[in-house]
Every structure is written in structure tokens, then in C-alpha cells.
Specification:
Elements: H1 4-25, E1 37-38, H2 39-47, H3 51-60, E2 68-69, E3 76-78, H4 80-89, E4 91-92, E5 95-96, E6 108-112, H5 121-134, E7 139-143, H6 149-153, H7 165-182, H8 200-203, E8 217-218, E9 224-227, H9 236-246, H10 255-261, E10 270-274, H11 281-289, E11 292-297, H12 301-321, E12 340-345, H13 353-366, H14 379-386, H15 401-432
Helix pairs in contact: 2-3, 5-15, 7-10, 10-11
Bound molecules: adenosine-5'-diphosphate and magnesium ion.
Magnesium ion binds near residues 121, 122, 149 and 274.
Length: about 425
């Protein structure tokens, strides 16, 4: 027979192992660090110019960052900061190397969501974040999943639950309750919202004093920040139900949307949400704050099935929001509208007839909502999963160059399509801003 104490003992054993795995996979000081990128990568894969062109430009201007030369090699190796300085200072064929971004618009927000665990959500979020950073964009990633895969992959493992999406939601509950309590009552305002008291257990947590920036953590990528999650945040779903009961007028689903609105518009270019494998308070916040909905799905029949039921249930959950009573006027806009919705096949094997048939089926059913580029199944990422790294973080000298290149190409293709989709709706945000 086993009771909670046995489970606690098993967990304690497992925590010891976790510590050991982290020691093996991170650099000696237990911190994840970002490698340098070779002149080959900078020229051909990042700036998309000839290696000789880049070499010539660097030779002509010694004030440009010159990278580090490896001990027995000819390549120079550049940090991401150096790459970004080159990007700002160089023009090739009179063209800027800076990425396209509508001036004045706020960051574009994309939720990567599906029901199924293992659909590839966290892998897609991690690779899009890294690809966008190498493309010159500033990224904020938000981990909505208490399994915290994205947070661990980005090197954040010791996170207090106040600084997760749960903290943002509880802070919003306090602020929104104060706000509606302050609305004038009676005939002249036309509202009759009851006064709501929150228990001290919530108001005394000090969350109301936190500023938006307090939730944002730097990562080892200088242009990627993260709002992390942690296993302790798993109680959010339970707590949120309780909070709604305390203040039924609280538009719980708009907490993160309001939070992000308070971040300066030009602080980031992309805000990417990694969603939990369920429809609940956290994923509704992600979806409600998103301009784009990106739905990754495996290429099997069951995954197609589960993706179908995901959009059905999401549709119902979004429709339900319209029925919430007494939300104070002007605080949220309903119904929720996305500027774009896309399906992205992951773990795709081009030589697998079933996978090809499933892609055709996805296209028949979802038409041009299906991404043209699938993300292929790759051994490089299976391995990198264990090492908590993306294909962009893995040094190509650590594996067969062809395996690395192929894996990188498949993620590049999916990212570039994502970026182009994003850029085409971004200007609409510009107009709205
Ligand atoms: N393109 C891919 N090729 C190989 N393995 C992949 C690929 N995408 C995801 N995986 C693996 O599948 C597993 C689940 O992926 P993950 O992104 O964590 O899914 P989710 O976040 O939807 O639960 C992980 O072990 C990951 O390494
Ligand atoms: Mg995940």
C-alpha cells in the first residue's frame, strides 16, 4: 500500500536525480550559456550573404566586431551581441540587415496551443524564439505550462510561483477588484456592481506592488526574455476557480492581456506563448492575449483527431466568454478575434506515406490555414531534448553536419513562414495602436 508519504519519498529521490542531470547538461556554474556562431553561420544562415562578402566588409572596417578566432581553425566566432551590432551597422547592396518591424506597433503575440501533450508546442516555441532572435528580433517568451519545459530549456529552473503567470493573474484579480470597487455606484453611473472583498491571504501576498518588469527574467540569449513557469504553479487552475468565486465580475481570461498591454509597445518584437496541454484558466489567458493562434499537430491519425477536438472545445470556451455577466464596461472586447490561425505539422517524415496522406487530409479540411512548411522529425532534436537545447544552440561540430543542417533547415522553413504570416498582420496592429 502507498500513501502520500510514499509519493513524497519517491519525489525526493527524483529531485536528487534532477539536480544531477542539470549538472551534466549545463556549464559548470550550473548556468546555461549561449555559444558563439561561426562566420559561415553568420554570413550564410543568419545574414544570408556570401561568406566572402562578409569577410571583405569586416576587413575593410576594423571597428566592426571581429569575433574570436578558434585555436586551430580559420573561422571566426561571434556572440549574438556582436552579430546584432553587425546587423545594425552593415548594409549589403544598400539594404539594411535589420528585420522588418512596423514602427510604433506593439509586439506581435502568438499562442502555440493544442491539447495533446507531445504535439511539439514547447519545441516549436523554443525554436521560433531562437530563430527570431537570430533574425534580429527581440523576443519575450511566456511559459503558461506548469510542466515548465520551455523554462527549463531556457535555463530557468529555480522559479518562485509568484513570478509565473499565476502571479500575474492574482495581481490582476487584486487590481481589477480595486478598480471595480472604485467605480461610482448608483443612478448616475448606471452600474450596480457589488463591492467585493478579497481575503487577506490574497491581498497580503505583495503582488499588487510588483511592476510588470518584475515578472520578466533574462535568459542566456541577450535578446530573449522569459516569464517562466514552475511545477508549483500547477495549482493555478484550482486557485483561479476560487478567485472567480471571490469576484464573479473579474474577467479572469484577460489578466495576461492587460498585463502585456502595460509593457512598453516597442520593448519586444515577438511575444510567444507556450501553452499547457489543456483548456483551462492559463490557456484561456494565452489564447485571449494572442494575435495569432499557431496549432502544432503530429502527423498521425490520432493527432488529427485530437487537434479536431481541440478547436471544437476552444471554440466553445471562447463562445462561453461572451456569456460572462457584469464584466465592467470597457475592460475587454468580446468576442475574441484572432488576426491569424494556422496549423503546423510537426515530427513529419517526408518518406512516410501515412504522414503525406495526413498532410493532404489537413489541407483538404483546413485549406490555406495549414502551414506549407512542416517541421520534420529529426534525431538532432530528440537528442537536443535531452540536452535541453534547440538546433540553433547545438554546435554543428557536435554531430554530422548534414544532420544538423537538415534539422536547422526544417525549423528555419517553419519559422520563416511564421515570420511572414506575422509581418502581414503586424501592420493591422500598427493601425490599431
Ligand atoms: N521535430 C521533431 N523531431 C523529433 N522530436 C521532436 C520534434 N518535435 C518535438 N519532438 C520531441 O517530442 C517530444 C514532445 O515535444 P514537446 O515540444 O515537448 O511537446 P508539447 O510541448 O506539445 O508537449 C519531445 O521529446 C521533443 O523532443
Ligand atoms: Mg510543452
Amino acid at each position: 500500500m502507498f500513501d502520500h508519504r510514499d509519493l513524497a519519498r519517491l519525489q525526493a529521490q527524483s529531485l536528487k536525480m534532477q539536480g544531477w542531470i542539470r549538472q551534466q547538461t549545463y556549464s559548470p556554474d550550473l548556468e546555461k550559456s549561449l555559444r558563439r556562431f561561426s562566420s559561415w553561420e553568420v554570413a550564410e544562415l543568419i545574414f544570408k550573404v556570401n561568406q566572402s562578402t562578409l569577410r571583405g566588409r569586416l576587413a575593410a572596417d576594423p571597428s566592426l566586431p571581429q569575433g574570436l578566432v578558434e585555436p586551430e581553425g580559420r573561422q571566426r566566432w561571434y556572440s549574438l551581441d556582436e552579430i546584432n551590432e553587425l546587423r545594425r551597422r552593415l548594409k549589403v547592396n544598400r539594404k539594411s540587415l535589420m528585420p522588418m518591424r512596423p514602427a510604433g506597433a506593439r509586439a506581435l503575440r502568438a499562442a502555440i496551443a493544442n491539447f495533446k501533450g507531445g504535439a511539439g508546442k514547447s519545441t516549436v516555441a523554443l525554436h521560433f524564439a531562437h530563430a527570431a532572435a537570430l533574425d534580429g528580433y527581440r523576443v519575450l517568451a511566456v511559459d503558461f505550462d506548469p510542466q515548465a519545459t520551455l523554462s527549463h530549456s531556457m535555463g530557468l529552473s529555480d522559479v518562485a510561483e509568484e513570478y509565473t503567470v499565476w502571479g500575474i493573474m492574482a495581481r490582476d484579480l487584486i487590481q481589477e477588484t480595486e478598480r471595480t470597487n472604485a467605480v461610482p455606484r448608483g443612478a448616475e453611473s448606471g452600474t450596480a456592481l457589488p463591492h467585493r472583498e478579497l481575503p487577506n491571504a490574497i491581498t497580503d501576498m505583495g503582488l499588487a506592488d510588483l511592476r510588470p518588469a518584475d515578472f520578466i527574467k533574462p535568459t542566456c540569449w541577450p535578446t530573449i526574455d522569459l516569464i517562466p513557469s514552475c511545477a508549483n504553479a500547477a495549482f493555478v487552475e484550482f486557485a483561479s476557480a476560487q478567485y472567480r468565486h471571490l469576484n464573479p465580475e473579474w474577467s479572469f481570461f484577460a489578466a495576461v492581456d492587460r498585463y502585456l498591454d502595460a509593457i512598453p509597445a516597442e520593448a519586444y518584437d515577438f511575444i510567444l506563448f507556450d501553452c499547457p496541454p489543456a483548456i483551462g484558466y492559463q490557456s484561456m489567458n494565452a489564447v485571449f492575449a494572442a494575435d495569432m493562434l499557431y496549432i502544432p499537430s503530429g502527423p498521425g491519425y490520432w493527432e488529427y483527431d485530437s487537434t479536431t477536438s481541440f478547436i471544437g472545445q476552444l471554440s466553445e470556451a471562447l463562445e462561453d466568454l461572451n456569456r460572462i455577466q457584469n464584466v465592467p464596461a470597457g475592460t475587454v472586447t468580446l468576442p475574441k478575434r484572432f488576426r491569424d490561425v494556422r496549423f503546423l505539422l510537426t515530427r513529419f517524415e517526408p518518406n512516410n506515406a501515412l504522414h503525406r496522406a495526413m498532410y493532404t487530409a489537413f489541407q483538404k479540411v483546413f485549406g490555406d490555414r495549414v502551414c506549407t512548411n512542416q517541421i520534420e522529425m529529426t534525431r538532432a532534436v530528440e537528442q537536443s531534448g535531452r540536452f535541453l537545447s534547440s538546433i540553433y544552440e547545438i554546435d554543428y561540430r557536435d554531430m554530422t553536419r548534414e544532420t544538423w543542417r537538415r534539422a536547422r533547415l526544417t525549423f528555419d522553413g517553419a519559422y520563416e513562414e511564421f515570420r511572414d504570416n506575422a509581418v502581414s498582420v503586424w501592420s493591422e496592429l500598427e493601425a490599431a495602436a
